[in-house]
Design goal:
It holds the Pfam family Tannase. The structure is a single chain. A hairpin with a 2-residue loop joins strand 10 and strand 11. The chain starts with 44 loop residues before the first strand and ends with a strand. It is built from eleven helices and 20 strands.
C-alpha cells in the first residue's frame, strides 16, 4: 500500500483523540472556490463546488458538547451521468491545527452520515473531514428506495451501499491536498452501525484507500439481519399478545441475575453469554415488579417472545436461520410494544430500519441480487492488503445489532485467511449496549490503538475500557473510574481477584 493517503472515520459517537502534531500550513490556500480546483472523479460529473470560511464557529459534536471551531467548509455536488442521482459531499478543513490526517464520517440506518456532528467531532481533534448524503437526505427509505412500485432504485442503492463511500473518499482526498498543498499522511476508517458496515465494505471493495479501519457493531449481513430483527414482532403478531415493556425488562433482569456470576464476579454484566442457559419458561407464573407501581406475573406469552428475541428465527423445519440477541441486551429496541389495558389496543413497535427494509426493498422486489451482494462481499476480504489494519469491537449487550453476527463474520474471515490477526482483530465488550451505553465499561482510545498498530506496528492484544460509574454511582473527587481490558477474540475476559474496578484484576483466557 502506498503512502501518503487519507484517514476515513465513520463515527456514530466516538471521541477521536489525536496525538499527531499540527501540520505546517505554509502552502495552505485561501478558503475560496476560486482557489480550490474542482476534483476529478471518474464516472462522475462535478456540478458545483463552493467554499466558505468559518472563524470561531460554535458547533455541536457527536459527544453532545459545543466547541468553537475555525474551518474551511467545502460543498461539492456531483452526479453519475445516466443514474439520475445528485449527491452532496461536505468537507471541513481546519484552518489552524490540521494534524495531517483526514476522516470521513458515516451514519446509521439508511443515512450515509451523521451530519455536521461527525464533521465537528473530527475537526475538533485536528482532522480534515468529509461526509456524503449518498444522494438521499430523508430518514425514511420510502422517499428513495423505489423508482416506481415494484422497481428498486438501484443507482441510489449502489450509492448507499458502496459507490458513495469511494466517491466521498476520493473527493475528500483531492480537496484536502489542494487546500493544504500536501496529501494526508495516513488513512483510517472508524464507525459504528452503518458506519461499521461502511468500514468493512471499504476494506473489501476498496482496499487501497485505507491504512486502518475501526469497524464497531457493524450492520453486516444486511439482508439477513434486518429481516431477522423483525422476528420477535412476527412472533407477537402470531400469538396476538404484546408483553408490556415492564415484563420484557423483567425477563432481561432475571437472565442477568441467573448468569451474572459465570465469569466469577457479580457486577450486573454477562461476560460469557455463550454459557448462559437461562430459560425464560422457568419463571412463568413468578411475580415481577419494575417500580413501586408496576408489577405483574411472568406469562407464557412473554417467555415465548423473550425466547424468540434471544434465539432468533427458526424455520418450520427446525433450522435456526440467524442469531438472536444476547440475554442482557435491552429488548425494547427490537421487541418494542405499546401495552394497553384494552388488549385489542396493544401493538408492536418494530425497529424502523428493519420494517422499512422488508417493506421497500424485499417485498417490492424480492430478487436474489441483494442477497448475493452481501454474501459475495465476504470473499473480497481476501484482497485486503496485509499492510492494512482493522479493528472491530461489538458490545455484547447490543440491543439492535446481533453481536453473534459480527463474531460469525470474523470467524468466516478467519477460515478464509488463517493469519487474520496479522491485520484484523475483533473484541467483544461485555455489558456495552448499541455502540455505547449499558452497564459495561466502554472502550476508550480504540482509534489510537489502531493508529499505533498502523504507524508503530503495535498490535492490540487488549482494548482499555472505562466505566463512567462505580457500582452505579458516579465517583467522587479523587476516585478513579473503573477500568478493564477486553480481549482480542477468541480470548475472553476473566476475573482473577482483587479490585473489580482495576484492569489488573482481569485477564484474558
Amino acid at each position: 500500500m502506498m503512502h501518503p493517503r487519507t484517514i476515513t472515520t465513520f463515527s456514530a459517537g466516538l471521541y477521536l483523540a489525536s496525538s499527531v502534531a499540527a501540520a505546517p500550513l505554509s502552502c495552505q490556500v485561501a478558503c475560496s472556490a476560486a482557489e480550490i480546483p474542482r476534483p476529478v472523479l471518474f464516472g462522475a460529473e462535478i456540478v458545483s463546488l463552493d467554499a466558505v470560511e468559518f472563524r470561531n464557529q460554535s458547533v455541536a459534536t457527536l459527544q453532545g458538547e459545543n466547541v468553537w471551531l475555525s474551518y474551511c467548509g467545502v460543498n461539492i455536488t456531483y452526479i453519475h451521468p445516466g443514474w439520475n442521482d445528485s449527491i452532496n459531499v461536505e468537507i471541513w478543513l481546519p484552518l489552524d491545527n490540521w494534524n495531517g490526517r483526514f476522516q470521513g464520517t458515516g451514519g446509521g440506518g439508511f443515512q450515509m452520515s451523521s451530519g455536521p456532528l461527525g464533521l465537528a467531532s473530527a475537526v475538533r481533534d485536528g482532522y480534515a473531514a468529509v461526509r456524503s448524503d449518498g444522494g438521499h437526505t430523508a430518514d425514511s427509505a420510502a422517499d428513495w428506495a423505489l423508482t416506481s412500485p415494484g422497481n428498486l432504485n438501484y443507482p441510489l442503492l449502489q450509492d448507499f451501499a458502496a459507490v458513495g463511500l469511494s466517491d466521498m473518499t476520493i473527493l475528500g482526498q483531492a480537496v484536502t491536498q489542494s487546500f493544504y498543498g500536501e496529501q494526508p499522511a495516513y488513512s483510517y476508517c472508524n464507525g459504528c452501525l452503518t458506519g461499521g458496515r461502511q468500514g468493512l465494505m471499504l476494506a473489501q471493495r476498496y482496499p487501497d484507500l485505507y491504512d486502518g479501519i475501526l469497524a464497531i457493531a457493524p450492520a453486516i449481513n444486511w439482508d439477513t439481519f434486518l429481516v431477522t430483527e423483525y422476528w420477535p414482532q412476527h412472533v407477537m403478531a402470531t400469538l396476538g399478545v404484546y408483553p408490556s415493556p415492564c415484563e420484557l425488562g423483567a425477563f432481561t433482569m432475571a437472565a442477568i441475575a441467573a448468569c451474572d456470576s459465570l465469569d466469577g464476579l457479580e457486577d450486573g454484566i454477562i461476560s460469557d453469554p455463550d454459557s448462559c442457559t437461562f430459560d425464560p419458561e422457568s419463571i412463568i407464573g413468578q411475580p415481577f415488579n419494575c417500580s413501586s407501581t408496576s408489577e405483574g406475573i411472568f406469562t407464557a406469552a412473554g417467555a415465548a417472545v423473550a425466547k424468540a428475541a434471544w434465539t432468533g428465527p427458526v424455520n418450520p423445519y427446525g433450522k435456526l436461520e440467524w442469531y438472536g440477541l444476547n440475554k442482557d441486551a435491552t429488548l425494547s429496541g427490537l421487541v418494542g410494544t405499546v401495552a394497553a389495558t384494552n388488549t385489542s389496543a396493544a401493538r408492536g413497535v418494530p425497529f424502523p430500519v428493519s420494517a422499512e427494509w422488508i417493506k421497500w426493498f424485499v417485498a417490492r422486489d424480492p430478487s436474489l441480487v441483494l442477497n448475493n451482494i452481501t454474501t459475495a462481499q465476504f470473499f473480497r476480504f481476501l484482497h485486503l492488503s496485509r499492510n492494512d489494519k482493522m479493528i472491530t469491537w461489538h458490545g455484547l449487550a447490543d440491543q439492535l445489532i446481533f453481536p453473534n453476527g459480527t463474531r460469525d463474520y470474523y470467524e468466516r474471515v478467519t477460515e478464509a485467511v488463517p493469519d487474520v490477526q496479522d491485520f484484523y482483530r475483533f473484541f467483544e465488550a461485555p455489558g456495552v449496549a448499541h455502540c455505547s451505553g449499558g452497564p459495561g465499561p466502554q472502550p476508550r482510545n480504540e482509534l489510537q490503538a489502531l493508529v499505533d498498530w498502523v504507524e508503530k506496528g503495535i498490535a492490540p492484544e487488549t482494548l482499555l475500557t472505562v466505566n463512567a460509574t462505580l457500582n452505579g454511582v458516579v465517583p467522587g473527587p479523587g476516585q478513579a473510574l473503573p477500568t478493564r481490558n477486553i480481549c482480542a477474540w477468541p480470548k475472553r475476559q476473566r476475573y482473577v481477584g482483587g479490585d473489580p474496578a482495576a484492569a489488573a484484576s482481569f485477564t484474558c483466557v
